[in-house]
Protein backbone atom coordinates (compact mmCIF):
# COMPACT_ATOMS: atom_id res chain seq x y z
CA UNK A 1 0.00 0.00 0.00
CA UNK A 2 1.36 3.46 -0.77
CA UNK A 3 2.44 5.39 2.32
CA UNK A 4 0.62 8.53 1.28
CA UNK A 5 -2.76 9.61 2.53
CA UNK A 6 -4.68 12.73 1.52
CA UNK A 7 -4.44 15.59 3.99
CA UNK A 8 -7.54 17.07 5.47
CA UNK A 9 -8.83 19.93 3.32
CA UNK A 10 -7.85 23.36 4.67
CA UNK A 11 -10.34 25.14 6.83
CA UNK A 12 -11.17 28.63 5.70
CA UNK A 13 -9.74 31.27 8.00
CA UNK A 14 -10.05 34.37 5.92
CA UNK A 15 -12.68 35.91 8.16
CA UNK A 16 -12.23 38.42 10.91
CA UNK A 17 -10.89 35.78 13.30
CA UNK A 18 -11.36 35.76 17.03
CA UNK A 19 -10.11 39.28 17.54
CA UNK A 20 -7.60 37.97 20.06
CA UNK A 21 -4.96 40.27 18.64
CA UNK A 22 -6.94 43.43 19.36
CA UNK A 23 -6.06 45.63 22.28
CA UNK A 24 -4.41 44.61 25.57
CA UNK A 25 -6.10 41.73 27.35
CA UNK A 26 -6.35 41.14 31.08
CA UNK A 27 -3.15 39.71 32.47
CA UNK A 28 -1.05 40.87 29.52
CA UNK A 29 0.52 43.78 31.31
CA UNK A 30 0.88 47.22 29.85
CA UNK A 31 1.41 47.63 26.12
CA UNK A 32 4.84 48.82 25.00
CA UNK A 33 5.33 52.53 25.53
CA UNK A 34 5.59 54.43 22.25
CA UNK A 35 8.39 56.98 21.93
CA UNK A 36 8.93 59.52 19.16
CA UNK A 37 10.97 58.33 16.22
CA UNK A 38 14.44 59.86 15.95
CA UNK A 39 15.08 62.49 13.32
CA UNK A 40 15.92 60.98 9.94
CA UNK A 41 14.90 57.48 11.00
CA UNK A 42 13.54 55.22 8.28
CA UNK A 43 14.84 57.10 5.26
CA UNK A 44 17.21 54.50 3.86
CA UNK A 45 16.52 53.02 0.42
CA UNK A 46 13.18 54.76 0.07
CA UNK A 47 11.68 53.72 3.39
CA UNK A 48 9.03 56.03 4.81
CA UNK A 49 10.58 58.27 7.45
CA UNK A 50 9.58 58.06 11.07
CA UNK A 51 6.88 55.67 12.08
CA UNK A 52 6.20 54.47 15.62
CA UNK A 53 8.90 53.25 17.99
CA UNK A 54 8.67 51.63 21.41
CA UNK A 55 10.92 51.29 24.44
CA UNK A 56 11.11 48.63 27.13
CA UNK A 57 10.40 44.90 26.93
CA UNK A 58 7.37 43.27 25.40
CA UNK A 59 4.38 42.67 27.65
CA UNK A 60 4.64 39.38 29.53
CA UNK A 61 1.76 38.01 27.47
CA UNK A 62 2.58 39.73 24.22
CA UNK A 63 0.66 39.34 20.98
CA UNK A 64 2.86 38.23 18.08
CA UNK A 65 1.84 38.25 14.42
CA UNK A 66 3.75 35.92 12.09
CA UNK A 67 3.20 36.80 8.43
CA UNK A 68 4.11 33.76 6.35
CA UNK A 69 3.16 30.11 6.86
CA UNK A 70 6.26 28.43 5.50
CA UNK A 71 8.71 26.41 7.58
CA UNK A 72 10.31 29.51 9.15
CA UNK A 73 6.98 30.99 10.22
CA UNK A 74 5.64 27.69 11.52
CA UNK A 75 8.79 26.93 13.50
CA UNK A 76 8.79 30.43 14.94
CA UNK A 77 5.18 30.03 16.09
CA UNK A 78 5.88 26.57 17.50
CA UNK A 79 8.87 27.74 19.53
CA UNK A 80 6.98 30.77 20.86
CA UNK A 81 4.14 28.58 22.11
CA UNK A 82 6.23 25.68 23.38
CA UNK A 83 8.04 28.07 25.72
CA UNK A 84 4.75 28.56 27.59
CA UNK A 85 5.68 32.17 28.28
CA UNK A 86 2.12 33.42 27.84
CA UNK A 87 2.68 34.66 24.30
CA UNK A 88 -0.30 34.66 21.96
CA UNK A 89 0.48 34.05 18.31
CA UNK A 90 -1.49 34.57 15.11
CA UNK A 91 -0.10 33.19 11.86
CA UNK A 92 -1.18 34.63 8.51
CA UNK A 93 -0.72 32.68 5.29
CA UNK A 94 -1.89 33.29 1.73
CA UNK A 95 -2.17 29.63 0.69
CA UNK A 96 -5.61 28.70 -0.60
CA UNK A 97 -4.96 24.95 -0.56
CA UNK A 98 -2.59 24.81 2.38
CA UNK A 99 0.27 26.45 4.20
CA UNK A 100 3.90 25.66 3.60
CA UNK A 101 5.44 28.26 1.31
CA UNK A 102 7.97 26.34 -0.79
CA UNK A 103 6.83 23.10 0.87
CA UNK A 104 4.35 23.03 -1.97
CA UNK A 105 2.40 20.10 -3.46
CA UNK A 106 -0.35 19.90 -6.05
CA UNK A 107 -2.38 16.73 -5.85
CA UNK A 108 -5.72 15.21 -6.75
CA UNK A 109 -8.31 13.13 -4.97
CA UNK A 110 -8.66 15.48 -1.96
CA UNK A 111 -12.13 17.00 -1.43
CA UNK A 112 -11.97 20.78 -1.46
CA UNK A 113 -8.40 20.88 -2.77
CA UNK A 114 -8.26 22.92 -5.98
CA UNK A 115 -4.51 22.67 -6.49
CA UNK A 116 -4.92 20.78 -9.80
CA UNK A 117 -6.91 23.67 -11.26
CA UNK A 118 -5.12 25.18 -14.20
CA UNK A 119 -3.65 21.92 -15.47
CA UNK A 120 -3.87 21.15 -19.16
CA UNK A 121 -4.90 17.55 -19.83
CA UNK A 122 -5.50 15.49 -22.92
CA UNK A 123 -8.66 13.87 -21.60
CA UNK A 124 -11.36 14.93 -19.11
CA UNK A 125 -10.59 14.23 -15.47
CA UNK A 126 -13.29 12.38 -13.59
CA UNK A 127 -13.52 12.77 -9.81
CA UNK A 128 -12.50 9.19 -8.99
CA UNK A 129 -10.38 8.34 -12.00
CA UNK A 130 -7.21 7.57 -10.07
CA UNK A 131 -6.65 11.24 -9.25
CA UNK A 132 -5.36 10.33 -5.78
CA UNK A 133 -2.17 9.17 -7.51
CA UNK A 134 -1.58 12.60 -9.07
CA UNK A 135 1.06 14.17 -6.80
CA UNK A 136 3.46 16.93 -7.82
CA UNK A 137 5.94 18.40 -5.34
CA UNK A 138 6.62 21.56 -7.31
CA UNK A 139 9.04 23.38 -5.01
CA UNK A 140 10.98 21.62 -2.23
CA UNK A 141 11.81 18.07 -3.40
CA UNK A 142 13.39 16.76 -0.19
CA UNK A 143 15.50 18.05 2.67
CA UNK A 144 18.34 16.97 4.94
CA UNK A 145 19.15 17.59 8.59
CA UNK A 146 22.68 18.07 9.93
CA UNK A 147 22.26 20.69 12.69
CA UNK A 148 21.43 19.03 16.06
CA UNK A 149 18.55 21.44 16.75
CA UNK A 150 16.93 20.62 13.43
CA UNK A 151 17.65 16.90 13.75
CA UNK A 152 15.64 16.88 16.97
CA UNK A 153 12.81 18.67 15.21
CA UNK A 154 12.80 16.19 12.32
CA UNK A 155 12.75 13.25 14.72
CA UNK A 156 9.73 14.84 16.38
CA UNK A 157 8.09 15.25 12.96
CA UNK A 158 8.74 11.59 12.20
CA UNK A 159 7.34 10.51 15.57
CA UNK A 160 4.14 12.37 14.72
CA UNK A 161 3.89 10.84 11.26
CA UNK A 162 4.73 13.96 9.25
CA UNK A 163 7.90 12.82 7.47
CA UNK A 164 9.64 9.67 6.35
CA UNK A 165 12.98 8.77 4.84
CA UNK A 166 13.27 8.71 1.06
CA UNK A 167 15.44 5.71 0.20
CA UNK A 168 15.17 6.14 -3.58
CA UNK A 169 18.14 6.67 -5.86
CA UNK A 170 19.14 10.30 -6.39
CA UNK A 171 22.24 11.43 -8.23
CA UNK A 172 23.73 13.83 -10.72
CA UNK A 173 23.79 13.40 -14.48
CA UNK A 174 26.26 15.29 -16.66
CA UNK A 175 26.12 16.12 -20.34
CA UNK A 176 28.04 13.00 -21.26
CA UNK A 177 25.57 10.71 -19.55
CA UNK A 178 27.83 9.99 -16.56
CA UNK A 179 25.88 9.26 -13.40
CA UNK A 180 27.17 9.93 -9.89
CA UNK A 181 25.27 9.07 -6.69
CA UNK A 182 24.22 12.15 -4.76
CA UNK A 183 26.02 12.75 -1.47
CA UNK A 184 28.99 10.49 -2.13
CA UNK A 185 29.64 7.26 -0.26
CA UNK A 186 27.79 8.36 2.88
CA UNK A 187 24.92 10.61 1.80
CA UNK A 188 22.74 12.25 4.45
CA UNK A 189 19.23 10.97 4.98
CA UNK A 190 16.73 12.43 2.54
CA UNK A 191 13.44 13.42 4.17
CA UNK A 192 10.08 13.86 2.43
CA UNK A 193 6.48 14.27 3.54
CA UNK A 194 4.67 11.15 4.68
CA UNK A 195 1.11 12.35 4.12
CA UNK A 196 0.09 14.65 1.28
CA UNK A 197 3.51 15.29 -0.24
CA UNK A 198 5.85 17.99 1.02
CA UNK A 199 2.89 20.24 1.73
CA UNK A 200 1.70 17.64 4.23
CA UNK A 201 4.64 18.45 6.51
CA UNK A 202 3.55 22.07 6.88
CA UNK A 203 -0.12 21.12 7.12
CA UNK A 204 0.69 18.64 9.88
CA UNK A 205 2.68 21.22 11.84
CA UNK A 206 -0.15 23.71 11.54
CA UNK A 207 -2.75 21.19 12.68
CA UNK A 208 -0.63 20.33 15.73
CA UNK A 209 -0.34 24.00 16.68
CA UNK A 210 -4.09 24.45 16.40
CA UNK A 211 -4.82 21.32 18.41
CA UNK A 212 -2.31 21.93 21.19
CA UNK A 213 -2.29 25.68 21.69
CA UNK A 214 -5.72 27.13 20.91
CA UNK A 215 -6.87 29.70 21.92
CA UNK A 216 -3.34 31.12 22.27
CA UNK A 217 -2.69 30.21 18.64
CA UNK A 218 -4.77 31.11 15.62
CA UNK A 219 -4.14 30.67 11.90
CA UNK A 220 -5.85 32.97 9.42
CA UNK A 221 -5.73 31.65 5.85
CA UNK A 222 -6.05 32.35 3.09
CA UNK A 223 -5.25 35.85 4.26
CA UNK A 224 -2.98 38.25 2.38
CA UNK A 225 -1.67 40.88 4.81
CA UNK A 226 -0.89 43.85 2.59
CA UNK A 227 -0.66 46.79 4.98
CA UNK A 228 0.50 47.57 8.49
CA UNK A 229 -0.21 50.67 10.54
CA UNK A 230 1.51 51.78 13.72
CA UNK A 231 -0.77 52.46 16.66
CA UNK A 232 -0.19 53.34 20.29
CA UNK A 233 -0.71 49.73 21.31
CA UNK A 234 1.24 48.05 18.48
CA UNK A 235 1.08 47.14 14.80
CA UNK A 236 -2.35 46.93 13.22
CA UNK A 237 -2.47 44.55 10.23
CA UNK A 238 -4.83 44.84 7.29
CA UNK A 239 -5.92 42.39 4.59
CA UNK A 240 -7.98 43.68 1.67
CA UNK A 241 -8.72 46.87 3.52
CA UNK A 242 -10.00 45.32 6.75
CA UNK A 243 -8.23 45.09 10.08
CA UNK A 244 -7.16 41.60 11.14
CA UNK A 245 -5.72 42.52 14.53
CA UNK A 246 -3.25 44.65 16.47
CA UNK A 247 -0.06 43.08 17.78
CA UNK A 248 2.88 43.86 20.04
CA UNK A 249 5.44 42.31 17.70
CA UNK A 250 5.50 41.66 13.95
CA UNK A 251 7.46 38.80 12.36
CA UNK A 252 8.02 38.89 8.60
CA UNK A 253 8.48 35.23 7.61
CA UNK A 254 8.50 35.67 3.84
CA UNK A 255 10.47 37.71 1.32
CA UNK A 256 10.35 39.33 -2.07
CA UNK A 257 8.39 42.35 -3.23
CA UNK A 258 5.42 41.65 -0.96
CA UNK A 259 7.61 41.70 2.16
CA UNK A 260 9.31 44.88 0.95
CA UNK A 261 5.98 46.64 0.46
CA UNK A 262 4.82 45.55 3.91
CA UNK A 263 7.91 46.80 5.73
CA UNK A 264 8.49 50.02 3.78
CA UNK A 265 5.90 52.23 5.57
CA UNK A 266 6.89 51.03 9.06
CA UNK A 267 9.98 53.24 9.17
CA UNK A 268 12.15 50.19 9.92
CA UNK A 269 14.84 51.49 7.59
CA UNK A 270 17.56 48.95 8.38
CA UNK A 271 15.22 46.00 7.94
CA UNK A 272 13.88 47.44 4.71
CA UNK A 273 17.39 48.03 3.39
CA UNK A 274 18.33 44.39 3.98
CA UNK A 275 15.15 43.05 2.42
CA UNK A 276 15.76 45.25 -0.61
CA UNK A 277 19.31 43.87 -0.99
CA UNK A 278 18.11 40.25 -1.12
CA UNK A 279 18.46 38.75 -4.60
CA UNK A 280 16.19 35.90 -5.66
CA UNK A 281 16.33 33.54 -8.61
CA UNK A 282 13.48 32.82 -11.00
CA UNK A 283 12.76 29.14 -11.67
CA UNK A 284 10.22 27.44 -13.90
CA UNK A 285 8.59 24.30 -12.50
CA UNK A 286 7.02 21.99 -15.07
CA UNK A 287 4.63 19.38 -13.70
CA UNK A 288 3.94 16.63 -16.24
CA UNK A 289 2.18 13.28 -16.24
CA UNK A 290 4.17 11.07 -18.63
CA UNK A 291 3.84 7.50 -19.83
CA UNK A 292 6.61 5.07 -20.63
CA UNK A 293 9.56 7.20 -19.49
CA UNK A 294 12.44 6.07 -17.30
CA UNK A 295 15.94 7.24 -16.54
CA UNK A 296 19.11 5.25 -16.22
CA UNK A 297 20.43 3.83 -13.98
CA UNK A 298 17.65 1.47 -12.96
CA UNK A 299 15.76 2.65 -9.89
CA UNK A 300 16.39 6.35 -10.49
CA UNK A 301 13.91 8.68 -8.77
CA UNK A 302 15.60 12.09 -8.93
CA UNK A 303 18.60 13.75 -10.56
CA UNK A 304 20.49 17.02 -10.45
CA UNK A 305 21.53 17.93 -13.99
CA UNK A 306 24.95 19.32 -14.71
CA UNK A 307 25.91 21.29 -17.79
CA UNK A 308 22.30 21.57 -19.02
CA UNK A 309 21.24 24.99 -20.24
CA UNK A 310 17.55 24.40 -19.56
CA UNK A 311 17.03 21.90 -16.73
CA UNK A 312 18.52 21.72 -13.23
CA UNK A 313 16.45 18.87 -11.71
CA UNK A 314 14.11 16.08 -12.75
CA UNK A 315 12.19 13.97 -10.28
CA UNK A 316 9.60 11.18 -10.38
CA UNK A 317 7.01 11.94 -7.68
CA UNK A 318 5.10 8.72 -8.32
CA UNK A 319 8.18 6.63 -7.55
CA UNK A 320 9.22 8.82 -4.63
CA UNK A 321 5.94 8.26 -2.82
CA UNK A 322 5.44 4.64 -3.88
CA UNK A 323 2.19 5.41 -5.66
CA UNK A 324 0.64 3.30 -8.35
CA UNK A 325 1.03 4.85 -11.78
CA UNK A 326 -2.28 5.99 -13.28
CA UNK A 327 -2.63 3.94 -16.49
CA UNK A 328 1.14 3.50 -16.54
CA UNK A 329 1.81 7.24 -16.20
CA UNK A 330 4.11 8.87 -13.68
CA UNK A 331 4.07 12.39 -12.26
CA UNK A 332 7.33 14.21 -12.95
CA UNK A 333 8.60 17.58 -11.72
CA UNK A 334 11.16 19.34 -13.93
CA UNK A 335 12.95 22.48 -12.75
CA UNK A 336 14.64 24.95 -15.03
CA UNK A 337 18.01 26.50 -14.39
CA UNK A 338 18.09 29.98 -12.88
CA UNK A 339 19.52 31.31 -16.16
CA UNK A 340 16.60 29.87 -18.14
CA UNK A 341 14.15 31.31 -15.62
CA UNK A 342 15.76 34.72 -15.90
CA UNK A 343 15.62 34.68 -19.70
CA UNK A 344 11.96 33.65 -19.70
CA UNK A 345 10.65 35.63 -16.75
CA UNK A 346 7.13 37.04 -16.99
CA UNK A 347 4.64 38.22 -14.35
CA UNK A 348 4.07 35.01 -12.38
CA UNK A 349 0.54 36.00 -11.39
CA UNK A 350 -0.55 36.05 -15.04
CA UNK A 351 1.66 33.83 -17.18
CA UNK A 352 0.64 34.19 -20.86
CA UNK A 353 -0.65 30.92 -22.29
CA UNK A 354 1.72 31.04 -25.25
CA UNK A 355 4.70 31.46 -22.89
CA UNK A 356 3.59 28.54 -20.73
CA UNK A 357 3.26 26.27 -23.78
CA UNK A 358 6.63 27.33 -25.15
CA UNK A 359 8.29 26.72 -21.78
CA UNK A 360 6.61 23.31 -21.60
CA UNK A 361 7.83 22.37 -25.06
CA UNK A 362 11.39 23.55 -24.41
CA UNK A 363 11.72 21.88 -21.01
CA UNK A 364 10.25 18.61 -22.31
CA UNK A 365 12.60 18.69 -25.30
CA UNK A 366 15.54 19.14 -22.91
CA UNK A 367 14.24 16.25 -20.79
CA UNK A 368 13.93 13.84 -23.69
CA UNK A 369 17.39 14.88 -24.90
CA UNK A 370 19.08 13.86 -21.64
CA UNK A 371 21.62 11.05 -22.19
CA UNK A 372 19.98 8.82 -19.57
CA UNK A 373 16.38 9.07 -20.72
CA UNK A 374 14.77 5.87 -21.91
CA UNK A 375 11.39 6.00 -23.60
CA UNK A 376 9.68 7.66 -26.55
CA UNK A 377 9.06 11.40 -26.60
CA UNK A 378 5.35 11.90 -26.03
CA UNK A 379 3.01 14.76 -25.26
CA UNK A 380 2.12 14.65 -21.55
CA UNK A 381 -1.29 13.43 -20.46
CA UNK A 382 -1.42 16.43 -18.11
CA UNK A 383 0.85 19.38 -17.50
CA UNK A 384 1.22 22.75 -15.89
CA UNK A 385 4.11 25.22 -16.08
CA UNK A 386 4.50 27.44 -13.02
CA UNK A 387 6.99 30.26 -12.61
CA UNK A 388 8.51 30.85 -9.20
CA UNK A 389 9.44 34.49 -9.77
CA UNK A 390 11.10 34.75 -6.33
CA UNK A 391 12.30 31.19 -6.03
CA UNK A 392 15.55 30.88 -4.07
CA UNK A 393 17.97 33.32 -2.46
CA UNK A 394 21.19 34.10 -4.29
CA UNK A 395 22.76 35.89 -1.32
CA UNK A 396 22.59 35.45 2.43
CA UNK A 397 23.16 37.34 5.67
CA UNK A 398 24.82 34.60 7.70
CA UNK A 399 22.65 35.42 10.74
CA UNK A 400 19.66 33.30 11.79
CA UNK A 401 17.26 36.25 12.14
CA UNK A 402 17.12 40.01 12.34
CA UNK A 403 15.37 42.30 14.77
CA UNK A 404 14.77 46.04 14.77
CA UNK A 405 13.87 46.22 18.42
CA UNK A 406 12.45 49.72 18.78
CA UNK A 407 10.20 48.91 15.83
CA UNK A 408 9.11 45.60 17.36
CA UNK A 409 9.78 43.98 14.00
CA UNK A 410 11.79 40.88 13.12
CA UNK A 411 12.54 38.84 10.02
CA UNK A 412 13.12 35.10 9.66
CA UNK A 413 13.51 32.85 6.64
CA UNK A 414 15.86 30.43 4.95
CA UNK A 415 17.70 33.24 3.11
CA UNK A 416 19.23 34.49 6.33
CA UNK A 417 21.33 31.31 6.61
CA UNK A 418 21.20 29.68 3.18
CA UNK A 419 18.46 28.26 0.97
CA UNK A 420 17.10 25.08 2.52
CA UNK A 421 14.48 23.71 4.91
CA UNK A 422 17.02 23.37 7.71
CA UNK A 423 17.96 27.04 7.27
CA UNK A 424 14.30 28.07 7.44
CA UNK A 425 13.61 26.06 10.59
CA UNK A 426 16.71 27.29 12.43
CA UNK A 427 15.82 30.86 11.50
CA UNK A 428 12.30 30.47 12.88
CA UNK A 429 13.55 28.94 16.13
CA UNK A 430 16.09 31.76 16.55
CA UNK A 431 13.45 34.42 15.91
CA UNK A 432 11.25 33.01 18.67
CA UNK A 433 14.13 32.81 21.13
CA UNK A 434 15.03 36.41 20.41
CA UNK A 435 11.47 37.59 21.00
CA UNK A 436 11.23 35.68 24.27
CA UNK A 437 14.58 36.93 25.61
CA UNK A 438 13.45 39.82 27.79
CA UNK A 439 17.06 40.95 28.22
CA UNK A 440 17.75 41.27 24.48
CA UNK A 441 16.41 44.79 24.06
CA UNK A 442 18.54 45.67 21.06
CA UNK A 443 18.81 45.22 17.33
CA UNK A 444 20.17 42.00 15.86
CA UNK A 445 21.79 41.28 12.51
CA UNK A 446 21.02 44.64 10.96
CA UNK A 447 24.56 45.95 10.54
CA UNK A 448 25.73 43.09 8.35
CA UNK A 449 25.61 43.03 4.59
CA UNK A 450 24.40 40.13 2.48
CA UNK A 451 27.04 38.07 0.70
CA UNK A 452 26.73 35.69 -2.24
CA UNK A 453 25.42 32.25 -1.36
CA UNK A 454 28.12 29.60 -1.16
CA UNK A 455 28.78 27.68 -4.33
CA UNK A 456 27.67 24.39 -2.76
CA UNK A 457 24.01 25.36 -2.99
CA UNK A 458 22.14 23.80 -5.90
CA UNK A 459 19.68 25.50 -8.22
CA UNK A 460 16.82 24.01 -6.16
CA UNK A 461 18.20 24.70 -2.69
CA UNK A 462 20.93 23.72 -0.25
CA UNK A 463 21.19 20.28 1.33
CA UNK A 464 23.61 20.23 4.30
Keywords, please?
464 residues; alpha+beta; FAD/NAD(P)-binding domain; Polyamine Oxidase, Chain A, domain 2; eight-stranded mixed sheet; six-stranded mixed sheet; 21% helix; globular
Describe what this molecule looks like in 3D.
The chain has 464 residues and is α+β, with helices and mostly antiparallel strands. It has 9 helices and 27 strands. It folds into 2 domains: 33-98 and 200-277 and 394-452, 3-Layer(bba) Sandwich (FAD/NAD(P)-binding domain); 105-197 and 280-388, Polyamine Oxidase, Chain A, domain 2, CATH 3.90.660. The protein has an 8-stranded mixed sheet with strand order 6-23-17-21-20-19-9-10. 52% of the residues are buried. The model is unreliable at 1-45 (pLDDT under 50).
Secondary-structure map with pairings?
Layout: E1 33-35, E2 53-55, E3 63-67, H1 71-82, E4 88-92, E5 105-107, E6 120-121, E7 135-137, H2 148-159, E8 163-165, E9 169-173, E10 179-181, E11 191-193, H3 199-213, E12 217-220, E13 227-231, E14 234-239, E15 242-247, E16 249-252, H4 257-263, H5 269-277, E17 283-291, E18 294-295, E19 300-305, E20 311-316, H6 317-320, E21 329-336, H7 338-343, H8 353-368, E22 373-374, E23 382-388, E24 395-396, E25 402-404, E26 409-411, H9 421-436, E27 451-452
